[in-house]
Specification:
Blueprint (H helix, E strand, L loop, with lengths): L1 E6 L3 H12 L3 E7 L3 H11 L7 H6 L3 E4 L6 H9 L4 E5 L6 H13 L4 E4 L6 H6 L8 E7 L11 H16 L4 E9 L8 E8 L4 E7 L6 E8 L2 E6 L4 E9 L9 E4 L5 E7 L8 H15 L7 H17 L3
Parallel strand pairs: 1-2, 1-3, 3-4, 4-5, 6-9
Antiparallel strand pairs: 6-10, 7-8, 8-9, 10-11, 11-12, 12-14, 13-14
Organism: Flagellimonas eckloniae
Protein name: Oxidoreductase
InterPro entries: Gfo/Idh/MocA-like_OxRdtase_N, Gfo/Idh/MocA_Oxidoreductases, GFO_IDH_MocA-like_dom, NAD(P)-bd_dom_sf
């Protein structure tokens, strides 16, 4: 079992602590949180071991799980990496692109593995259709949330949209060509609503919308590719796959047939992939343990987390133009 320590015992940190404590792949050594009052509450309620010094905890483990505010990600990760510890780090990987690039170099130098907590990659709905998404040419995403003060210290792009950025970059095998975006601050000092259009070198276009002041929650993505339409509801964990193929010479009474102006006929049919229920956060933590134990690449590498951050920051920069 891998000895693991958690940095940060806030809302998400407590979820990580519980899952790691119950995992068969990890031995939870303890946690560190600079807020001693909060740390005491966590100890009293759950009984986890509290370390008063961050370096003492890092020295005692094989893996450091960083669930702290984004501004502290770089410093925490650097401390862990330079001590030869593997790191799981929540999204976004760091506060700046330069910090992320430095972590990449450090991880390579000290030969440690790192995974970024882009949890939607482990959403059961996305997992059910991930291999079906092939060369999409138009993507549309909507990630809307009701207002919650937690997270409003950063733009909605880094709070919400970055989930969709990461998913899109994982399925579009092409470099970003151009980004156009707009953002509006409504109740926060940073944008609460944002829309971005990402154009890729291969011709794919992605249109992303995020809001954290909506009246209802929504997390949907739609992928359009040749002869297929794939819809993923990350919130409800549902999928819709509509495909087209050449129509048979003698269609059945209930076959859905479309004919274009040239007379070509296509048959529309539906696929219903199995969606296997899982705990996405547990899944990402377990796959990281597997990557360490088998000396393979994590599902969401530090490099991929850096790429998602770079695009997110380019979107934010586009607001000013």
């Amino acid at each position: 079992m891998l000895k693991v320590g958690v940095l940060g015992a806030g809302h998400l940190g407590k979820i990580h602590l519980r899952l790691l404590n119950d995992s068969d792949n990890y031995d939870l050594v303890g946690f560190y949180d600079p807020d001693e009052i909060n740390a005491k509450k966590v100890v009293d309620e759950f009984g986890y071991s509290y370390f008063e010094n961050i370096n003492t905890l890092i020295d005692a483990v094989d893996v450091v799980d960083i669930v702290t505010p984004t501004l502290s990600h770089f410093d925490c990760a650097k401390k862990a990496i330079t001590k030869g510890k593997h790191i799981f780090i929540e999204k976004p990987i760091t506060n700046t692109h330069q910090e992320a690039k430095e972590l990449l170099k450090l991880a390579e130098q000290f030969k440690v593995k790192g995974q970024v907590g882009h949890v939607e990659r482990f959403n059961p709905a996305f997992l059910a259709v991930r291999d079906t998404i092939e060369n999409p040419m138009f993507i549309e995403t909507h990630r809307l949330a009701e207002f919650n003060p937690r997270g409003t210290d950063v733009p909605v792009v880094l709070d919400l949209m970055i989930h969709d950025i990461d998913v899109i970059l994982s399925v579009v095998k092409s470099e970003v060509k151009q980004i156009n975006a707009s953002g509006v601050s409504v109740v926060s000092k940073s944008p609460d609503i944002a829309n971005a259009r990402i154009e890729f070198e291969n011709g794919c276009v992605a249109n992303l919308t995020s809001s954290r002041i909506s009246l209802k929650n929504m997390r949907k993505s739609r992928f359009f590719q040749q002869d297929a339409y794939i819809s993923v509801d990350f919130l409800e964990k549902k999928v819709e796959v509509v495909k087209m193929k050449d129509a048979p010479e003698k269609p059945g009474d209930f076959d859905m047939i479309l004919q274009n102006a040239e007379g070509d006929k296509k048959q529309i049919y539906f696929e219903n992939p199995d969606i296997e229920t899982n705990n996405a956060i547990l899944e990402e933590l377990e796959t990281f343990a597997n990557a360490i134990n088998t000396h393979t690449d994590p599902v969401v590498t530090l490099k991929q987390g850096t790429q998602a951050l770079r695009v997110a920051l380019q979107i934010i920069e586009s607001f000013k133009q």
